[in-house]
Amino acid sequence: MGDNHAFASWKSASDPSVGNYTLGVDPDGAPQIIIWEHRKRRWRSGQWNSVIFTGVPDTANLASFAYGFRLSPPESDGTMYFTYSPANPSDLLRFRIRWDGHEEQLIWSEGNKSWTVMQRQPDDECELYNHCGDFGVCNKLESPKCRCMDGFVPKHVEQWNRGNWSDGCVRRTKLQCERNSSVAGQNGGSEDGFKRFKCMKLPDSADVVTPRQSESCEKRCLQNCSCTAYAEITGIGCMIWSGNLVDVQEFNKDPSTLLLHIRLADSELGGKRAISNAVIIVVVVVGSFVLAISAWLFWRFKGELEALCKDSPISCCKSSKVKITDPSSREFSMDLSGLSEGFVIDGSQVNSADLPMYNFNAVAAATDNFSEENKLGQGGFGPVYKGKLPGGQDIAVKRLSRKSGQGDEEFKNEIIMIAKLQHRSLVRLLGCCIEGEEKMLLYEYMPNKSLDFFLFDPEKQGLLDWTKRFSIIEGIARGLLYLHRDSRLRIIHRDLKASNILLDEEMNPKISDFGMARIFGGNQNEANTVRVVGTYGYMSPEYAMEGLFSIKSDVYSFGVLLLEIVTGRRNTSFRTTDYSSLIGYAWQLWKEGKAMDLIDPKIWESRSSVDNDYFSEVHDTSEVLLEAKGASI
Fold it and tell me: Any idea where the EGF-like domain is (predicted)?
């Protein structure tokens, strides 16, 4: 009934009077969450489709982690509202609009007696409302971040090139219905059409309509000259946009197969042109002549081609399989890639001496064309395959999924980081492949998978006696020390956890996955970010809550990992107990003088085969860990 309830921000961090920002529901069209700065829109969540907010691709991940959104049906007085229910009823959640205009969702950590930020919006320039202007598209991974939609050009080119995108873009070619008031398709013009775009945050200010029976959403849009785009979204229906398209963002993964159809002139779609019979005859004759000459040349030099194929590193004749040569040769590692001198990625030069480049066909052959039998697993980056180089060396190939949102950035980051690092406790990067849309990283193969594969499996835990666990702890510590102090670059890993510790054939640990790592300068001790990445439960409080990270952040994660190794339990396995986490459980036992209760029973079971010094070492290590933990608290 016109009464819109909203959250109001504080005036400042210490002044609780009403501030400049409000957060509430915009009921027009498909409802969405809006942050206003006074009356001006600052950020929006995108339309609600009964599953996610279409402008927040990670909504589904957050929902499975903590809560579920649902839109209640309109009541008799026209009221509608959003509600949420924690996945775990014992979890305490809250939402707030900060004094600086950021929306946050927080969860209470009983162990730390503090609130932890689960998500924050906006966390990037592209999420600011209409950052690239009308008919502009923002992509945070591109440089520059703004570009015009296909069929549009900057309204003011000079300002656009200087990075001032506020005026947006305009059509390059007028629509047929704009050029002629008569029905499209008459008086010498071709009918307008639509170009389909995926992975887009749908524009603002859409009208949700119900087409008449046997009438499509596309036809409904074509009948109205002011209609500039349409979309048919499950859970919403037919959405029509009139006028300018505003606040459009391009994602690097498609959260719910969102397809936006933008109206363009026929010529922008590669419009059809009348072709005379004479032109058709000429094309056919010339094509036939070229085909005949090609066939004759192939027959004439067939013998030479076959001889060449036998010596070529790539099979080019009969076999679909790829023959590859010694990976140390220039033919395999460099010449075939076309990047023998290295390449520049995000401003950093990566030389072929630091990181060999591999040809796609060669990597495909090494993994048996990425067969399911060779698939080792699936991560946020994409699938990982086992392969074998011609010399017999086993490799693991991490292939960037084209649907992955985080993979592109992780790929670049990992190349820059790992290519310049060498240590026995770090997974060795053997090379990479960049060819077309394909991006892959080649690592040394770890036959014993990751630490969590053994540590949290009741049947395999017994294989990790205290000697092995202590050796793993020591190896991780050496790798971390190298990253923080001894390498040419000071590296903060930011995602240290059991699944990122790989084990070789002798169960030696190697730190992997540097996609989220950051390089620190020589005199730099800490940094701040609005984009908190990593795994909850392993994040230090100052990083999770304030985005502040340093080498201490990795040390905190290392401490959590040590507790997991000693106890054989996941940090998250305590959510359904009286303790919020393994840290809270360990701290309580320490205060009660029961620290030895932490030790994995699988270690105690092997007591008869070891001496008392063995368990003295376990006890001493547990005390050191808990004392360090207590000091940090």
Answer: 122-158
| String of DSSP letters for 479-506 | HHHIIIIISSSEEE-S---GGGEEE-TT
Nearest to 33 by CA among 106, 83, 74: 83
**Interval 409-452: pLDDT, tens:** 667 767 777 666 778 898 888 888 888 778 888 989 999 989 98
> pTM for the full model?
0.46
Q: How far is CA 231 from the centre of its chain?
A: 25
Type of residue at 569? R
What is the dotted CATH code of the domain comprising 451-632?
1.10.510.10
DSSP symbols for 526-549: EEE-SS--S-TTTS-HHHHHH-EE
Tokens 């001198």 belong to residue: 341
Which residues does 401 contact at the CB level (< 8 Å), separation at least 6?
381, 382, 383, 407
Rounded to 5 degrees, what angle do the CA atoms 232, 238, 241 make?
100
287-335 pLDDT, tens digit per residue, is: 877 888 877 777 766 665 555 544 433 333 233 333 333 434 433 333 3
Q: What's the fold here for domain 330-444?
A: Phosphorylase Kinase; domain 1 (3.30.200)
User: Which residues lie closer than 8 Å to 154 by C-beta, 6 or more apart?
Assistant: 148, 160, 161, 167, 168, 169, 170
Taking CA 26 as the corner, what is the angle to CA 22 and CA 29, rounded to the nearest 5 degrees? 165
Known active-site residue 495: yes
Three-state SS for 353-406 is CCCCECCHHHHHHHCCCCCHHHEEEECCCCEEEEEECCCCCEEEEEECCCCCCC
Residue 114 one-letter amino acid: S
Active-site residue, selected from the candidate residues 26, 266, 408, 495: 495
Cα–Cα dist 143/131, whole Å: 14
